[in-house]
């Protein structure tokens, strides 16, 4: 059962290492115990040693109470010196500061790496990922390298930023961690903070020189992620740092377009107020922000775009104007706004379909009458 569970969680996909961190502590411990013990017999023998009765330790400095169970785990760690050192240190990090100190005192290297199966994760990355601040400080004190990367390019700072652990992020930056380190896909800590909405983490990264205009392999920037995910406070802080609101991703989309797709009206307004270009077009269908707003029925954003001077006569590569896109996607209130705004009502698309034909086919006779008039 243990081996089957471990296979599903860890080995099924190369990227499933991240799922390990989201398991409950007892599950994570079970997984790591299954690594230590090569057979089912060894596993239960190890578990028996782990749960044997021993006196309790005192309170540790990281506020974790050293219970009899914690002491039993330390005894288990001490009794398995012939086992994998990395695994023992990971178990210790899950347990307590005292357990980590005990394992390190046996000569286990503080910068030891996991196998390829675990992407070469270091103890510092692991502790940062699960938010163990006191253990992070201990590992750094013992010589853990701040800017080491795993096989995916993650650093300990990036791991802490992903999860929003502000105190760990601040500590890392104070100790000299690189705020602009990039993963193999060119994600930075600032991008993760922007994507996840970690405002204070973002502030700390900006304070230490994080690049607000960096772009990953998809061409996405912190501004784009904040816009896409509705994090208006983060967007405002990036704009206050003069972040470029008109960068384009690989598909030609701007932050404004990502906000429109996601329906974040306030963010679209902020971007337009901050100089976002209402006339740009994405690559695939050559659609402008106004055309996208019509397609997705973003009536409020459409009003802001028209107020900002967006071209109401714009068409995409199929010859469809905003009215055709709105009608074709059943956004009749948006279509009404466009008609009232003076959009050409007789222009067909490449398939020779006019707005009147589409409105009639949808059975919207009120709009049909408006178009005829």
UniProtKB/TrEMBL annotation:
MF annotations from Gene Ontology: PDZ domain binding; protein kinase regulator activity
InterPro entries, per the entry: Ankyrin_rpt, Ankyrin_rpt-contain_sf, Neurotrophin_sig_adaptor
UniProt-listed Pfam families: Ank_2
Residues forming coiled coils: none
Record-given protein name: Uncharacterized protein
Organism: marine metagenome
